[in-house]
Design a protein that fits this description.
The protein is α+β, with helices and mostly antiparallel strands. It contains nine helices and 13 strands.
Length: 264
């Protein structure tokens, strides 16, 4: 897609994957917060160019932040819908877990003798922060690749919301503060000047079970080749969905297109 020019970093614009938009704003001098702010600004402008959607604020949380939050909550309940093999964690016969790294074309690196990759088998269970995050990062062993990973990431977000709601975190200032501290610098939330505690407190009446998550392209691949490279393009229906978001008609769209609802 077309990523517009971003003069703040000297980027002149290009046509490529949308996930490059953040990096073109992030590059250059400044503090980590300033660079992230530019990255979000560039991404927001890119989405606006494509859809017309304007953003009033944004939140950024990295993997470390997610893991810290789930650890503070004491874990989450997850249901594995498809056998998934990790490329980030290994486990030995004693149950000790090792953090690993993956090299494209060569597989898992630094796996200790006698250890094997962690495998998430089908079924519902309580997951630690480490295992829940790992499950949400896997895509290579899934039948639907990136779409499966997106589905599991949405599942994790919903599981965190359920856990927070069930333990009264949103309505308990002390517990809420502990979760915010757990995320630490890994979590950046733009609330337009409203204290984060007040912002989250307004969500106290929103039950996690009421969250409805949706997926682009109804979870189906729409691969196109451009200049010798393969890209996933938004379908016409997905553009209609984003137009519904812009115009405040998303509920109407989802009712007419239930295939866009993510089953988490």
């Amino acid at each position: 897609m077309q990523i517009p020019a971003y003069p703040k970093t000297g980027f002149g614009g290009s046509t490529e994957k949308i996930n490059s938009a953040f990096s073109y704003g992030y590059q250059g001098p400044g503090t980590e917060l300033e660079k992230r702010a530019r990255g979000v600004d560039s991404l927001a402008q890119t989405v606006h160019t494509l859809t017309g959607i304007k953003f009033n604020g944004a939140a950024i949380i990295d993997f470390a932040g997610f893991e810290s939050v789930v650890k503070t909550l004491g874990g989450v309940n997850m249901c594995v819908d498809e056998r998934a093999e990790s490329i980030h964690l290994g486990i030995d016969k004693k149950g000790k877990i090792y953090k690993l790294w993956y090299k494209e074309g060569e597989g898992i690196q630094d796996l200790p003798p006698g250890a094997k990759a962690v495998v998430h088998e089908k079924g519902c269970r309580r997951m630690s922060a480490e295992l829940a995050l790992d499950y949400a990062r896997i895509r290579k062993s899934l039948s639907d690749g990136d779409y499966g990973r997106q589905r599991h990431q949405q599942q994790l977000i919903k599981a965190i919301a359920k856990e927070a709601t069930s333990k009264g975190v949103i309505t308990n200032p002390l517990k809420l503060n502990n979760v915010i501290k757990a995320a630490g610098k890994a979590f950046v939330l733009d609330t337009q000047g409203i204290p984060v505690e007040d912002f989250i407190f307004t969500l106290r009446g929103v039950a996690a079970h009421d969250l409805v998550l949706i997926k682009t392209n109804a979870g189906k691949f729409n691969t196109q080749r451009v200049n010798g490279q393969e890209f996933e393009q938004l379908s016409e229906e997905s553009l209609q969905m984003l137009g519904a978001v812009r115009d405040g008609r998303l509920a109407e769209f989802v009712i007419s297109n239930p295939q866009f609802i993510a089953k988490t």
